[in-house]
Amino acid sequence: MIKTKLIEKIGYGFGDMSSSTFWKIFSYYLPFFYSNIFGLSLIDAGVLVLVTRIWDAVSDPMMGIISDRTNTKWGKYRPYLLWVAPFFSICGILLFTTPDWDYGAKLIWAYITYIMMMTVYTGINVPYGAMLGVMTDDPNEKTVFSSFRMFFAYGGSFLALFLWEPLTNMFGGYNTPGGWFWGMVVIAAACFVMFILCFMLTKEHLKTISTVSVGNDFKSLLSNKPWWLLIGAALCSNLFNTVRGATVAYFFADIIGPDVHMSFFGLAFLFYAGLFLGIGEVSNMVGVALCVPIAGKLGKKTTFIVVNAALLVLSIAFFFVPCTPSGFWTMLILQVVISVFTGIMSPLIWSMYADVSDYAELKYMTASTGLIFSSASMAQKFGGAIGGAAVLWLLSGFGYVTDADQIAAGVVQPESALMVLRWLMSFIPAAVAALAIVVVWFYPLTTTRVNEINNELKKVRAIE
Description:
Layout: H1 6-38, H2 42-68, H3 79-95, H4 103-130, H5 139-170, H6 177-201, E1 206-207, H7 214-222, H8 225-256, E2 261-264, E3 267-270, H9 273-298, H10 300-319, H11 325-364, H12 369-397, H13 404-408, H14 415-424, H15 427-440, H16 447-457, E4 462-463
């Protein structure tokens, strides 16, 4: 089996450090940006998020097919890191640009820039994810690569989320379009550098060749039972994260309050959304570090079930925490523990996709790694689309007030809106975790079966 260098794992981590930094800001702050900064209604913002994310999800398999059939001196998937990185950063900046136009023109601008951003995100992230399938043939090594990936991803996300509000305040204010624009300029420049580092430090060791038509690739994918089950499980995982994450900015604005301070050994600090989310990202990193030893002992399938059972219980507990000084500490502790478990989930799922890719290669005799990993990205985006839109529509349906003039005049949110915010942080994510357990219960690729598949593939693969 191929043994890779530490620098390759670090380089691979830089890739998701970049894309995840953007993704977390999109998932957690973009709904708030559209409704409270850009000036869209909750209904229009919800439709925008859903439509653009669905296009993004549908485009993923297209990019998977293209990258599967790319052949360069740098490999199949790696060159896209170099080719797409500049457009990735530019589109991110345009996405957070607020033109001084009338409502209809701004809505069109929002659609154009969001679709552009999601298209280039697909163009770089699908090939990046597929690289995991050709960097090593060792299933345990794939879990290590996936753990490096997620560790770096959460590290970048922590910095972006923790610094986002101070960054926007530095450039004009958290509630101003200019603050969001210049904050994204800084983030976009850093992400460009990280993608280039990922390209420079990694290498594709396995040469896989797709020997069947595109139609047969799709046909084999649609008859792949483990793929269907993992798609459902991954969609639930991303839905869980998106619902909670997209709710946090609203939850802090209207339930916690804008000027709540906490004390730690005599030091007072502001309890704000970026702190809550940033601490979650650090806790995710702890979970990533725990993934390899836990999955190695329990197996990937059992680990998935145990983690979601814990998320179910912890999410329900969050509902009963009061908004008091001791309650705020309890919320923070629950956020830490929940995030440790979601941190375990992330590399676990990507590693399971690599196993599904190997299963498909052996069963159908086609190397459709890009197509399979594009489906992982597709599930992520469908989860984000459904979760982000659902948050906005539920808030609208329960009477949430977004009009800046009404808020400035002291209009308070109705009790129905405050209640749905609490449900979005508790019972709704708990129900999603329960569904994930049911789906993965039928997943057939156990540790024993995965080892058998890899032993068979050694006989037919070419290795550099």
